[in-house]
Specification:
113 residues; alpha+beta; 4 strands; 40% helix
Length: 113
């Protein structure tokens, strides 16, 4: 049994309340399934925004930027923004992120074999 398998089994036992999800590289293939193995396993929370899966810990900067850019483009037309406008956008982005529905998960990143 590999170390990653042992790690996953232990996390499943220690955190039965978490959803188990798998993340894998999106690659074009002629086959529906391919052999893979766990590369990295983390405890995190995820949400889906604009058809993209975002992780609270792993993607926090990217999600913040995505939401802040969306808010800025909805409310302002002159760029770059002033410091006061940037502060307002950042505050609104933090509020929106806190209001998202976050699901606890054990996240397994798969590496093609």
């Amino acid at each position: 049994m590999s170390n990653k398998t042992k790690e996953l089994l232990q996390l499943l036992q220690d955190h039965p309340d978490r959803e188990l999800i798998f993340m894998y590289p999106e690659e074009s293939s002629d086959h529906y399934y391919t052999l893979g193995q766990p590369k990295r396993i983390i405890l995190d929370e995820y949400t889906i925004v604009d058809d993209t899966v975002w992780f609270r810990v792993d993607n926090q900067d990217g999600l913040f930027d995505h939401i802040a850019e969306e808010i800025a483009s909805q409310h302002f037309s002159d760029f770059p923004l002033s410091d006061e406008q940037n502060d307002w956008v950042n505050q609104q982005a933090r509020k929106r992120i806190d209001q998202l529905e976050w699901k606890k998960a054990i996240v397994v990143y798969i590496e093609p074999a």
